[in-house]
Amino acid sequence: MESHMTNQMAGTLGYMPPEYINHCMISSKFDIFSLGVIIIKIVAGLDGYWKSAEVSTSEEFIELVHDNWQKRPQTTMFSYSTSHEIKTCIEIALRCVESDRQKRPTIKEIVDELKRPIGQVYTTRKFTFKLLDHITNHFSRDQILGRGGFGVVYKGMLDTGEEVAVKKLYNMPSLDDHLFDNELNNLMRVKHQNIVRLVGYCHHTTQVVAEYKGKHVSASVIERALCFEYLEGGSLDNHISDESCGFEWHTRYKIIRGICDGLNYLHTGSQHPIYHLDLKPANILLDKNMTPKIGDFGLSRLFDSMQTYITQAQSAMGTLGYMPPEYIDEHQISPKFDIFSLGAIIIRIMAGNVGYSNYITMPSRQFVEIVQENWKKRWTEALSPNASEEVKTCIKIALRCVETNRTKRPNITEIVDELSKIGTPRSSPIAQALECCGLNWIFGCER
Question: Which residues bind ATP per the record (predicted)?
């Protein structure tokens, strides 16, 4: 994303972004800011626009606008579709008017979000094994995307034109119907932009006749598969690097925020929290816009919030390096299992695998300073003004997440709240824009 400086003022007050008013900086995010203002005025009117400058949080404004639409006399019922459309448009608009231009979406991201079946809950299809065999070219080696502890993932294309990742589960005694149903049920429950979307599934049983000890016997062959949305960015595991190369900071921060939002949904988004129990870079996939999505729920469990459980499993869950000490030593499972894994992931995103090894051998304060200094060496003038605070906050959060004592680790809601406060003034994005334009006192009198 390029930016340019100009000596001539252009545009209309109220639609010009802060970086242009303060520094005469022009980029593609200039128009995005203007678009956000326009959308807010279309959806909420002028009064709603001014009201947005008074509310303290984006969530409060979204609910306010939604409630106002719901109260409006209509000839048709206020449907789920309408509700979702309103919330989506306002959420997009508020992201567009962020003071930090790096946090504004691109127009392509906006269009892609609006093109999705807004207000329509994706229906999970049951596929025949014959269809999955066909779209993966008979589960060809050429179609393999990756391998996991429970199966092989193949690329395929449905008759609708949608590309999918087909996870064909291994036929192993340990992989029974209970494990399959567990992952299927968990996936069907979750609907979030940072969770891999389940497209469909297959559970197929075939009777075959085979020779056994000189006799012909009938046996059941069970084929199980899960179909997910295809994410062309691949797994996060393939993008881990230190500060000197790889993704720029704003991309890494976007990934960190997305993972935290997805995990927050799993832990708090329903009556029965879902613990992932195998959170690691290989299980986090990226779309073409580098939006992270948490996947692979094969080990996940439904538990009551804040409870601790002792598992009797003979084999360890999870992956070494991402499992907390209380699980390794005593097989304890709680929400803090995933928090430990999250901390290990954030450290690797920020400092690479070598940096992760270094954090174990040095004091926390020294490690924080080293990570900050390494990022400062790479920064440019175009970097977000909040970047330094983002780096410091993220690495401190990560180190708290990997505390040996699980009671000292934060919960996911605390983490999300802390990240949300970075660079956030007390006023709303609209209030900040009005203040930059010098219009807050004018319209405070006239509206």
Answer: 168
